[in-house]
Every structure is written in structure tokens, then in C-alpha cells.
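Appendix B. One record, verbatim.
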Amino acid sequence: MSETTGQNQNFVLDEGVRVLILTRGAETGGRHDLVEATQPPGTMTPLHLHTRYDERLWVIEGELTVWAGRGKRVVGPGGFVVIPMNTAHMIQAGPGGARALNITSPVGFAELVERTAAPAALSGAGARLDLDRFMEVTTELGDIVLGPPGTTPDQLEPRQLAGSVTLDALHERRPSM
């Protein structure tokens, strides 16, 4: 068993979203990466899709609302969601915020965070994302931003969702107790 002990594993994205990188792609031969993300109440991602990796979310505490394709799911503690590659989606933290594990496979999200977010030790309360740098790196990693935060997939024209899977392909599971 190994433990990741690199510097600057804690990062801050825009609006106080904190990300702790637990596993990088270099540690898994590029098979997956793993981060723990903490989102303040109401924070949301832009509408986007990933062309190179699937995204899996396991909610530790709080609540996430996930819009994908033409539907949405609210996921609470213990809930698990798989967002397949090429699925237009947007994620919003619930009224009490959220803390979740995010696994991308193959790798993608941890590298985006490392290359665009501010190391937590160096950022203050008002840390702002360098949007130009973020867009450059996210595009390089095969992500496509389809709309600003707050835009949901159902607000797009059908042609804009071409290739995006439906909600039926968005899975939610709760572990049995």
C-alpha cells in the first residue's frame, strides 16, 4: 500500500470549491484518478462534456444535483452516479454544500485541477480561477464547455446534444445496508 505525499495536493477552484487530489494518473498507469471535492452551497459547474473520460461521483456528505442529457438526479450521502463520456452535464451542490469523491477514467480531472487551480496554501478567501487558462487546459484535455454555470442540458438545442447519452445511461446506486 502506498500513500500520496506530494506537495500542493490541496487546491482551490473558483467560488471556494476545494479539491484534494488523492490519486494521480501517473500512479495508476493512466487508468484513473481520484479527487475529493468540497463545494459550498449552490456552487455549480458550467454545462460541459468529456470526450476522453467517464466521470463517477460518490457523495460523502451533502447533496449534488446532476443534470445529464434531458434529465436530472439528486444524489445524497452514499449515492453514486456514473456520467459516461460524451454526456452533456452540469452539477450543482445542494443547500448545505457537498463533499464527494470524483473518479475519472481514464485520467483527466486531477490534471485539470493541478494545471489550473490555485494551491490551497497560497490562495486566500477570494481566489478566482484564471478562466482563460482553464479553458485552454480543459479544451486540451478533451472537455467541451457548452454553457456557463446554471445552463442545463435541457436548455440546449437537440443538435447541440448530438452524441450525448440520455438520462437512462446515468446510473445512481446506493449501497445496501
